Description:
Elements: H1 2-13, E1 20-25, H2 41-49, E2 54-56, H3 64-69, H4 80-83, H5 86-90, H6 97-104, E3 117-122, E4 132-137, H7 139-150, E5 158-159, H8 165-176, E6 180-182, H9 186-191, E7 200-205, H10 209-223
Parallel strand pairs: 5-6
Antiparallel strand pairs: 1-3, 1-4, 2-3, 4-7, 6-7
Helix pairs in contact: 1-10, 7-10
Organism: Methanothermobacter tenebrarum
Protein name: DUF169 domain-containing protein
InterPro entries: DUF169 (IPR003748)
Amino acid sequence: MNKETSEKFTRLLNLEKEPVAIAWSVKEPEDIPREKGKSRFCEKIDKALEGEVFYSTAEEEECFGGARYSGMKDPKEFPKNMRTGAFLVAMGIHDSIQSVQRSWQKNMAIEPGIFSSILFAPLSKAKFTPDVIVIICNGKQAMELLHANAYDSISDALGADVGPICSTMGARPYLTGQVTYGFADVGSRRHMKNLKDEDVMVSIPYQHAKRIIHNLEEMKRLRG
């Protein structure tokens, strides 16, 4: 089923990169290898883009944002200098701690302590039911996806602003059930090898995938 879904998205949109499947799990799976070493949430998507299938726990999450927004770790467990966001001021991402704190209010996060692991895979190789499907594409392909989502007026998409993709492309579509689109963020564009300057990200809650594919097919048929 996931292989067919991946093939249809790729064919209908003429994608260069295969969609990535992500799922949260209350336990560690027995039939999927655990990630080797630490990486950031965005880099885990990169690994899946390169064909890797794996699961990750809090121990493999290298980034404060990745751990916080994916629900792998309670932010209260981090040292105060991390929780203030002062490191983002030093990095030139915000002009003050106050700006950081205000921006964080808009970032959705999955409640910590619920899930034990997160599963990542190219959609065609995913033997699990994804929670969200992340598609990296160009502007025209993203427009077609958003149009297909709105084609039947069942759901509207959400713009992601500049928040970290662990929140905007992970937690937000998971929690809201709405397709989310955006231009990634400073961190992911710095660390992801497979994210081009011109790329756009669209994250689709799995329950919308079949409907969106149907709408893409209808749009293509009627346009000729």
